[in-house]
Design brief:
By secondary structure, this protein is mainly beta. It contains four helices and 17 strands. Strand 1 and strand 2 form a beta hairpin. The termini are far apart.
Length: about 230
Amino acid sequence: MELLDKKGFEFKMDCKPDYGFLTVRIPSGQKLKVEAAAMAAMDTNLEMKTKLKGGLARFLSGESIFINEFTAKNGDADIQIAPACPGDLEHVYLDNETIYLQNTAFLASAENITVESKWQGFTRGFFSGESFFLIKCSGKGDLWFNSYGGIIQIDVEDGYVIDTGHIVAFTEGLAYDISRVGGYKSLFFSGEGLVCRFRGKGKVWIQTRKISPFISWVNPFRPAKSNN
């Protein structure tokens, strides 16, 4: 198996951009943080522990995430990781930097990456969807995240407007505001929802599809319950 040799862990990404599948080689004695339930297969010398990021209070309000930590014992070990959502994978190596992810985008990271949920308040909560929080990833090491659909990186030089449902991640330093495209009629009848207006210089990763239109498209095909 040919693994990509980066600054951090060796890894391989298959089946991009439709059904991304990640393989990471964990050096002996080191740990990899992985989204709960994302492990597809692994070597027998990997040991797993589960941690709750965000604390009990945030767990009760839906703002926490479960992360499994895999430790390689007595030698290097490979782990295969499958995201829950059909779509693309992206890798970045953080060098004492910070990236914000929408609440379903985190897939895996090195041990030295701090992963925490970040409350956004009522208005800003629309940015990250129904769960009203972002995931803040900071530190030095590998970070992988996933999307629904393909991923496109946009270099923001001054300002940019993006539909909130298409945003996957963005770098620290970008300021943003949530607003409507038009008036209230546009919000409810045009099919366009809320947008995020970024300001400053940085990077934004967007996904080529969003969940809510897909749910609307699928809904007419659901079996109808009989009244008999």
